[in-house]
Amino acid sequence: MAAVLVLSTVSLQAQSTTTAHSKKVVKKKTTNATEQEIQELRDALHQQQAQIDALKQENAEKDEKLHEAQQSAQGAEAAANEAAAKADTASSSSSQNTAAVADLNNAVTSLKESNAGLVKTVDETKKTVKQAIESPMTLHYRGVKITPIAFFAGESVWRQKSVNSDINTPFTSTPFANSGNAYVSEFNFSGRQSRVGGLFEGDAGPFKLSGYVEADFLSSGTTSNDNQSNSYTLRQRQIWGQAATKSGFAVTGGQMWSLVTETKKGTDNRTENLPMTIDAQYQVGFSWMRVPAMRFQQRLGSMTTVAMSLENGQIIGLNVANGPTNYFYGGTGNNGGLYNNSTTYTNNVAPDIIAKAAFDPKMAHIEVGGLARFFRDRYYPNATSTPTSSAGATNDTKVGGGGFFNVRVKATKFADVGVHFLGGDGVGRYGTSGLSDVTVHPDGTLEPLRAYQGLGSLELHPAPKVDLFGYYGTEYVQRTLYLNAKGQQVGYAPLTQNNTGCYVEALPTSGTAPAASCGALTKTMTEATAGFTYRVYNSPQFGRLQYQFQYSYLDKHTWAGVGGAPKALNNMFFTSMRYYIP
User: Fold this and answer.
1) Does this model's pTM top 0.90?
2) Which of 212, 227, 423, 428 could be bridged to 452 by S-S, CB 3.0 to 4.6 A?
3) How many domains does the chain have?
4) What is the per-residue pLDDT across 373-413, written as a single tens digit (0 to 9) for each?
């Protein structure tokens, strides 16, 4: 618009200059022509003025529109700012929403994973519950957990020399050459070592209470036989109750393995480390008993346990040559007191006392202990006087005992090596051979016999299903002699003992095995054993089926007397097939 105004002014001035020049020229010609030109100029000016006014009007309209445009622009800018602010808010909200959505997605993902894990847990729990219902490891009665324990055995034994026995071997009964049994073998089947029992456990808060019962059929009643239905009796192997605290103290009462018996862990019941033999009398050199007892034990840290046991006393194998008769130490059982009236029971003055410390370092188990025993009899100093008299009758108590240790080392992953030793006075009862505990002085008082027991063990595990075992054990009882007033040797295994009849087979009488007189007394019992266990099938759900084989060589030596020192040997083979419940 400004350019149009300038051009119009320049054109007007040019026209004025031209007109003035022309006017001067026209004046020279004529007045009418000049007026006409002036009129034309005026008309032109009016036209130009009209154009200018039109342009001004147009310009004003444009300014007004521009103003409106500016206002619109300002409004648009404000709207844009507002929109930008809203966009920022929206963007911020969007970011927050995005973060919230991301968190929500994460939560959903976690929930999905949790749900998946929950589903898996529920499935596993259902499976566990189903398994617990269909195949429970334990039974439950109120707050008591009950674990059944049993195996069912079909076993056999062949002995080169008959001892007229079932699956357990009375080692000292191995016959000399004077007995017809030394010339005949025996083969017997047996299912009597089959075992039934159960473990009962209850958590009483500060105490863990437990009870255990275990029984088999290796017992005979007055009607028991091998004729048709056998009718052998159920016998009590173990039955005890225990209360244990969280601090490691436990007290156990009832019939159990002696504390002398080697264990696998601490001095804990039910961890006894027994030989793997099929022979229910185990292995010569193995020290053990199962008797009524009270046991107290305390665990000290993770590796040490100390224990003390009071165990029912009994004198076994009292043997005396040329001995007096002026004493007694027990009597036959009273049926009214539920004792066997064909067996002698000791009049005990006190229980056997045993103490042991057990250590469980890595790869080994070590035990060290001692025991004290008390032997009492009543003797009559004037029983042989003239006249005889019970005046001066006196009770006499002798103390015996000894020490023992067990060491078992896991030499390799596939081999366990063990050594056991027990020695002392009057400890024959603890040996599996049952050698004599005491003899008698010429005056009628008792004398404990010095005895030793030792066992070496090697147990191999070449494969998960196979165990190999080898044992060598020996038990020894010392010769103990005194001279009486007549100059005779009195005691255990006198040099004057007549052993001449131990070599000559006697003639039979009434269809029973003959046996000539033989006074030889045992010096040592030795046994070497080898065998294997093969687990045909082993499942935590269905139990274990296993086969065993055992060979043993038994050697019995005696103290020399008149006629020498006779000995007896025996070769024995055992087989066993057992099914253990899981």
Assistant:
1) no
2) 423
3) 2
4) 999 999 999 998 889 999 999 999 999 999 999 999 999 99
